[in-house]
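Teaching note: in complex prediction, the entire set of molecules is handled at once rather than each chain in isolation. The prompt given to students was simply: 'Predict the structure of this complex.' The entities are:
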Amino acid sequence: MFLANPETNPNPQPAPVPSPDASATPAPRRMAIICSHGGLDQIYPALILANGARQAGIEAMIFFTFWGLDAINDKKVDHLGVNMAGNPSSPMPTVLTGLPGMETMAAHMMGKKLTSLDIPGPREMLEMLDEMGCELYACELAMKFMDLEEKDLIPQVKGVLTVGDFYDMSEGAQILFT
Amino acid sequence: MFLANPETNPNPQPAPVPSPDASATPAPRRMAIICSHGGLDQIYPALILANGARQAGIEAMIFFTFWGLDAINDKKVDHLGVNMAGNPSSPMPTVLTGLPGMETMAAHMMGKKLTSLDIPGPREMLEMLDEMGCELYACELAMKFMDLEEKDLIPQVKGVLTVGDFYDMSEGAQILFT
Amino acid sequence: MFLANPETNPNPQPAPVPSPDASATPAPRRMAIICSHGGLDQIYPALILANGARQAGIEAMIFFTFWGLDAINDKKVDHLGVNMAGNPSSPMPTVLTGLPGMETMAAHMMGKKLTSLDIPGPREMLEMLDEMGCELYACELAMKFMDLEEKDLIPQVKGVLTVGDFYDMSEGAQILFT
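The expected output is the structure of the full assembly:
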C-alpha cells in the first residue's frame, strides 16, 4: 500500500507545534495546495501531494477552486471523469477519446488501477485527508460562479474562504497550483 | 462585488516598502504568477490570485508565457475561448464540447456569469491589475515562438523578460505556475 | 540561441556550495519542478524553467509524475504529441484538432519552430539538463500506476522517488507544479 491511512498508520508523524516564541523557532513547514481542475487524473496529484505532506509531518491544506470544486461536490465526487485530452501522447487520438462514454470508461479503468494499488477513491481519500489533519477549503468566488452552497459540499470541508483568507493562511507556505 | 477595483477601493492596502537595512527587516511578501494557458477559464485563476494579492498588500507580478500570451495579445484578449476539455465532469461529452461554436458559446456564457458577479472581462481586469500595481510581463522566448512583438501586446505590459530576468525578480517570492 | 548548453557555455555559473555552518549562511536557492503532463507543449515550460534556473546558478530538480513520465520514457520521449485542447483560442475548433494526425502534425510544426529557435528536442534537452546539474527524478507511485520500471526510462534519470523523498528534497525550495 502506497498511502498510509489513519487505520493502518494510527500514528502519522504529527506536524510540529509552533513555539509560542515565534522569533526563536522557525515556523513549521506548510503546503498550501490549490486544486483548480476536476478530472479524476487532475485531482489525484493534489490529494497525493497533500497525503504525502501529512505523512512527512508537514502541515497541509487544499483550496478547491473553479472546476476543482467538483472534487468536494457531494453529488459529483463519485462520478469524476478523466481528462484524456491532458495526455496527447496517448495512443488514442483525441477524436476517439472524445466519444460519449470514453471518459466514463477511462474513469472506470483508472478506478480499477487505483484499487489495485490500494489507493482509495476520491471520497474516501478526502475523508482520510481530513482525519490526517489536512484542511479542506472551498473558494468563495468559485462557489458563487458555480451556484454552489456549503450544503452542496462534502462534510469534510472546513469552510469557504475568500482569496484574501487564502493568502492569510498560506503566508510562508510552499504554494502549489494544480 | 467580489473584486475591489481602484475606483471603488481607492486606497487598497499598499505593499510594505522594503527597509534600506535588509538584514533587519524581512523582505515584503511577493507573488510571482506564471500564466501559461490562454483559455478564459485558465487565465482567471492567475488574474484573481494577483488581484487578491494586491488587495492583501502583497506584491504581485504575472509572467505570461506560451499560450498565456493570448491574454495580453491586443488582438486576442477580447476573444478568448473556454477550455472545456479541462472539465471532464461536465455533463457534455468532449465530442460535443469540441463542435465548432461550442467554445465561443461557453465563453459567452462564462462572460455573462462573470458580469453577474461584477467581475470585469479580461482586458478591463488587466487594466485594473496594472493600476493596482501588479506588474505584467511577457516571456521573451515565448514571444519569439509565437512570432509576437511588443507592439502586439496590450499597453499595460511593463516589459519582456527572459527566464533569467524572471528568476531575478522572483527571488524569495511564492511562485505559482498556472 | 536562447538556451545556453554545456558545449557553447562550458562554464555555467555553478550553484553556490552550502556552507558547513548552515546557521551562518542562507541555503542556496533551489527550484523543485513537478512535471505532471506529457504533451510537447506541456513539458517545455518545465524544461525551460529548469534550464533557466541552472543558467542563473540556481539548483534545480524535475520530478516527473503521472503523464509527465512520458517525457522520460525512453520509448515515448521522441514521439510526444501537442495538447491542442490547451489552447482554446486557437483558430482551429477542438473537433478539428482532435482528428487523427492533427496532434502529430502540430507536434511536427512545434518541433520545426523549436529548431528554428535553436531549442533542442526533448531528449537532447533532457541530456543537456542532466549535464548542467539539473536532477531528473521519476515518481514511484506514478511508475506503478503506469506499469513502468526503471529500465523503461532514459538513462539521465537519477532515481525513483516517493512523494516523501520529494518532500525531503524540496524543503526550502520554490516548488512549481506544471
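Point out the following to students. The helical segments of chain B are 40-55, 94-97, 102-116, 122-131, 140-145, 163-169. The longest strand of chain B covers residues 30-35.
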